[in-house]
Records
---
Amino acid sequence: MVQQNRITARTNLLGLIGHPVDHSLSPVFQNAALNALNLDYVYLAFDISTGDLMDAVRTLRTWRLKGINVTVPHKEKIIQWLDRLDDTALLLGAVNVVVVKDEELVGYNTDGIGFAKALDFNQINLNGKQVALLGAGGAARAVLSVLIERGVRKVIVFNRSFERSLQFQQWAKNSFTTVIEIDNWESFINGQSSFLSQVDVLINATSLGLSQEIIEVPWNGIDSCELVIDVVYNREETPLVREARKKGKKAFDGKMMLLFQGAESFRLFTGFEAPIGVMEKALNEALR
């Protein structure tokens, strides 16, 4: 919890912007970490619609914020109003951290770090695996970069917008030597894609599940799938993780990815290594 009695006129402001954000647990563990290190910051969440994003970015300087995390649906669109990007954000074309440095807005992406560390936490080896990746946005780009780094054999992307899938495929072709395949969303939910019978791992990198939406997974068509990863998280299990576990598959959601990307964000914001144990404890307590 934020220690309200220590906030002064000199307290530094950090935040999260996205839409929606009322489910977010970032303020819980970020403020716990700030308090643990006795840093004069406070971290708040701001629900910003797409139409208000430009004005919100301008206020970073006006209100002298030190930095923000960026979540759906703003990770790509926000780039046009930033001054520069680090190499990872430039590669991914997506930003989930903005730091204000000497009036300059600098974009970073810590989603890949978060996803990679979540894999390690869950002791997942993806080498040689065949992966069905749902989504073609900023989170999917970060996930794909880690999948390639971890030596997956094949990736096929399904997205609700086939045009976005084509753009994603072109981006991947320009960025990596690994070739990815795409198929339309209907082929996935109807179980008609020929690739589904070969899938070892299913990863959801869309926003579906954020508001408890159910993804129509053709479970009978992916019998070979042994692992389901949902980048989305909720205080409860996401519908995808719940269904996967009912089917006897190993599954986990995006909470640990959130924690690890948040720890790297903390370092970028403050210059201090995050007290990861404090952050994890605060996150777990919030989930009880």
---
Amino acid sequence: MSSIQLSSRTTKRKSVATHKIFGNIAVLILLIVFTLLFIAPFAWLILTALKSPADLDAFPITWLPDHVHWNNFVQAVTLIDYWHFAWNSFALSTIQSVLITATSSLVGFGFARLRGWGKRPLFMLMLSTMMLPSIVGIIPTYILFSQFGLVDTYWPWVLWGLASSPFLSFLFRQFFASIPQELEEAAIVDGCGYGRIFWQIFLPLSKPVIATSMIFAFTGVWGDFLGPTLFLDSDNTTLAVAISHGYADLHGLTLINVLAAGCVLYVLPMLILFFFAQKYFVQGIVTTGLKG
């Protein structure tokens, strides 16, 4: 009887191990498929950037170019004032990412550590604004800024940065709430005020969430199209707007291959940024969910 039970257990273990192996293989296949789906558009963009107009007009579609045309990248930076518009995008992205990270960290610290009447309703009110699409307020914002003479200037991005972000404030609040209360209590016993506690204790510990906030804010402004289109003129606009209509031939037709090359150069800085900051980015996302 015991040998039969032992044989039955062994069979069950082998069955479980087999199911686990097949499950891992299925998950691996799904990950490969989804990875290819995510990579495919960018790969096609790069291939288009290396093609000639004849390759683009060919039918049936040619997947690989007959000859690699690196000159498309040269035209992408010469047909428009590429570096001027790139600097505009970099300046706006840097200004707003720094300001919005600083103000959101202060808001998050207040909701996580300070005590006061109505803190929870205010926090819920702030979270509720995240459900409103940003496009809802773009026209009223434009009217307001135009009345103050702030259109065609960079002041809207400065003011948006000073206003903080509900989402980033929520990230900081979640991270600060996960820091042990003993650190704050020890600092208070030593005579530290909340300003010093925030600056010397909480901020040095929050490098991951700071990096996450900077990446979110920087890429958000870098990739914004509607905001610069409405609030900036053609000379002070950003790279996203400039490359959307700057590559055309003498007949006004869009140069698809040059546009693709410009888009590759446009996306490349964000890929490099995420590559070097991905460690802190992942840590920031993970640690902000430790405590509610």
---
Amino acid sequence: MALKGNIFSGLVTFEVAARLGSFTKTANQLHITTGAISQQINLLESQLSLKLFFRHSRGISLTADGKKLYQVVQHNFADIEKVIDELRQGQSPDGEIKLKLTPSFAYKWLIPRLKKFYNLYPNISIQTYAEGALVDHQDSNFDLTIDYGQSPYHNQHAQLLLNEQLIPVMSPSYFQRFDWQNNSTENQQQIWQSVTLLHDAMPWKNAKKHEEWQYWFEKMAIKTQSNQGHFFNRTDMAMAAAEAGLGIALARYALVEEDFKQARLTSPFHPINANAGYYIIQHRSSSVIECFKAWLLTQN
């Protein structure tokens, strides 16, 4: 069968988990939660109709099918790494790529990682265009587009870059205003009636302006009004408002790593699956474009 982007992404997670023998160690290496690793493995097993791991009190171990798959995946990943190393030792790829993506993803995720790419490929130039909150993935003036959207993505040719998670975030001072440790229904209801919600009102085309908060409340079984607070047309603006103490933003987990490290934002919650992700749409093909796309897929 043809491997879709999310299966390829799942195989990357599977290879690390099989090699390390632990979901916790895998989560630490990939910089996501253990729960997210478990979800990705469960999804991969469902998509392949195979049981890959035994789960037990001591951790995990590969099933017979898992061992066979790991041998193949490990061998092929080693071949890919070998080819990449050989290419690096030869002439460095030379060329230009036009990339379209949202400002939030460019600013919070891509730009902090670009130095690594330029160190590897100094002769490749990335022209980055991040003009609006929504991306026109059909615009063929660009070589590659990275768009955020619900899963499954509406363009069947798109390739999943990374699955996203949602987590409420706020400034440390805003956090101190409420008793988050008290999990009683009465206290939690009072908190959510008192806080100001900060929204990305345009997460994708035709979305309701409170779509993400409504989704989070439903998944958390919290009954409160989601259509209140302040609305922005970009998720990084909502996060900046949260940092300024204006309320609680529902952040995309891939974009808040540095904010948590620098203690600009905090959260009393664990991230949950957003049922959405970042997708690569490719309009042209060349060795330079394929090189950059392959590098992108190693960064999740």
---
Amino acid sequence: MANAREMRLRIRSVGNIAQVTRALEAVSASKVRKAQSSVEASRDYARRVANVLGRISTYSQGSAHPLLVPRDKVENIAILLISSDRGLAGPYNMNVTRAALEFAQEKNKPARWVTLGQKGRDLAYVRGANIVGDFSSFKSSPSFSDVTPIARFLIDDYLDSVVDEVYVAYTDYVNTIRQDTRVVRIMPMITGNPKDDENAQASTDNESDVGYTYEPEPEELLEAILPRFTQMQVYQSVLESLASEHSARMVAMRNATDNANELSAALRLAYNKARQLSITSDLLDIAGGAEALQQAG
């Protein structure tokens, strides 16, 4: 058993760790609130843009825009993997990277990987992923222009026929406790996805009988809107991933703090027992010595 000095050092060390994890939890909690408000604000916008895009594509009478038309033969795919640069976020980085790798294995097609975040990049590289683009994760809430270079990189690869499909692997923020990993196709685009959402369905039903007049022609609108909508999809995925990252880190640090407190309490109990045992032994030695002196006298 460790002596009293070693146990005091361990108690102090665990207490210091608990202070660090408690501070990280507080920082992540503040970031979660900000990221959650950004996600909720952009979700409705992205949903309505998708609805408008679906209507325009319907009125365009089968537009042959390359971002809408699936390729006859899919030979190569691109995967945008969104993770973080920092750890201490529980299984956040591992889950999204595993989902992306399993998806690439199921597709069984040559994949070009574009990574956003160091952790996911390192995990994918170890598994032999062909990484053709790497971007640093954002330290704070990104703007739309911050995400534009990533989207333009993917759009250029798709329009130049370097790849035939483009997917994004990210973590969808549901609530503080739950975050779901998703791998979705963004090129060629799938219009009308928002109809799967209950709220979007209600708004779509309310506007289903409304007629629209487009100026300029739908084809010209699609030419201007489609690239920007792709950028919006990437931007929304980044916001969802940031909210999920901060939430996962907050929960992980809370669990670490609780575990440190439990370990500290157990160590203090063991220390007190050892100290009591030492005091009892000393008292017995004193009592035994006094009795021996009394008998000798």
